[in-house]
Amino acid sequence: MWGTIAGPVDHELVVKKSRFLAHLSPVASVADADAVIARIRKEHWDARHHCVALVVGTHADQQRSTDDGEPSGTAGVPMLEVLRHRRVTDVVAVVTRYFGGVLLGAGGLVRAYSSAVSEALDVARPVRRAVLTEVHVDVPHADAGRLHGILRDWAAQHDGTLDDVAYRAEAQFTVLVPPAELDRFDADLAATSSGTLTARRHTDRVVDLPA
Residue ranges of the Impact N-terminal domain (predicted)? Predict the structure, then answer.
């Protein structure tokens, strides 16, 4: 499963007086990525190059890179390879270069652009993707407080998450449970409620969790 990053990251790398400013942003679509690219270009209007790599989609379905005037294959593709190798999606990487007067050569450019993205990922907060099953549990209001803590702790211990609580005629808890843990969830819920509570299974969802 591919992961992503929790929020935007900026990182600077200096190689032989050239400044490489890497910006990473989580994005939900190619259109979102294009908006980030346009903003970076506007912020650094005086820079010579704004090289781009982006990966979008639950399974990294859409991938794109541009060298923006650098020799072909020395910037965008190496940046994209870093994103692929680190298995991150729904992210755009823009590396802005201010030329320092010293030619780096093709190999030097590849190393600089890929290192800028790799080092930016090192300081980003990673988020892992998981497929979880949405489960609903209806709880009488008198027991809702106790069950809230139990369900929250159970989810935290089993790579799931307590997603929502809706207060209607009863309190409806929505818990996201790993498919392999569904039977255990049912058994633990029955044990903690003396058999009075049951879970209703719904659809699977792709969820971002802290790595």
Answer: 16-121
* Alpha carbon distance 34, 46 (integer Å): 19
Q: Which CATH number fits domain 128-210: 3.40.50.360, 2.60.40.420, 3.40.50.300, 3.30.70.240?
A: 3.30.70.240
Compute mean pLDDT per 10 residues along the chain, 211 residues long, and list them.
90 94 95 96 95 92 94 95 95 95 91 97 90 93 91 92 90 94 94 91 84 69
Task: Residue 44: count other Cβ atoms within 10 Å of its Cβ.
Answer: 17
Q: Nearest to residue 4, comparing CAs of 68, 65, 60?
A: 60
Count of positions (residues) in the chain:
211
Cβ neighbours, 10 Å, residue 38: 12
Contact 96, 113 (CB under 8 A): no
